[in-house]
Amino acid sequence: MNLIQRAKDILLTPKTEWNVVAGEKATLGSLLTGYVLPLSLIPAVAGFLGMMFFAGAFWGMGFGIAMAIVSVVGSILAFVIGSYIIDALAPSFKSEKNIGASAQLMAYSATAIWVAGILSIVPVLNWLAALAGAAYAIYLMYLGLGPVKKTPEDQRVLYVIIAIIIYWVIYAIIALFIGTMIVGAIFMGGASMMRGAAGF
């Protein structure tokens, strides 16, 4: 699988590409290292550069690095949590329970979010990019349910809605916890350095 070609095809010709994906075998681990991690660096790096260009003097490099780390960790959490939620819900929506297929659905649907994240380099476009990426990701997931999870057409809308609601609640709690820990550690480290420089 060519990462760039897969990302391009899943975004531009999703109906055709989902049928290709359905014929492939993948694992959660292989998708994490070969697709999720590389693409998750797009919004992380773009966000970091945007912060340095537009607010570096105010926030500092430490905060920018912390936010980039939170972005990548959040993407990994989103992928893993989402994959297991989709798989756990599968029998309730007459779908195939297969963690590899669920991971494919989650990873390739999220492509829209990561690619849209390039706009994070301009901070004022960050929320717009996130909203547009998330909306298209949900649409991609809907299209992929049939080929990848063998979900009947009359079950797909509800399947997506329930999966997204559960996912966002769990993800928001975990991401908030991790973000607070990382940012807190950065600020505590900075405060310690300042005290040391002052001789306290």
Tell me what the structure shows:
The protein has 200 residues and is mainly alpha-helical. The protein contains 8 helices and no strands. It has helices spanning 3-12, 14-22, 28-59, 61-89, 99-109, 111-116, 126-149, 153-198.
Key features of this structure:
200 residues, mainly alpha, 84% helix
Ordered list of secondary-structure elements with their pairings:
Elements: H1 3-12, H2 14-22, H3 28-59, H4 61-89, H5 99-109, H6 111-116, H7 126-149, H8 153-198
Helix pairs in contact: 1-2, 2-7, 3-4, 3-5, 4-5, 4-8, 5-7, 7-8
In short:
This protein is mostly helical and 200 residues long.
* H/I helix tally: 8
Main sheet, how many strands, which sense, barrel?
none
Low-confidence stretches: 190-200
Our Rg estimate from Cα atoms comes to 19 Å
Q: What form results from the Cα inertia axes?
A: globular
Fraction in helix:
over 70%
Roughly what is the average pLDDT, rounded to an integer? 85
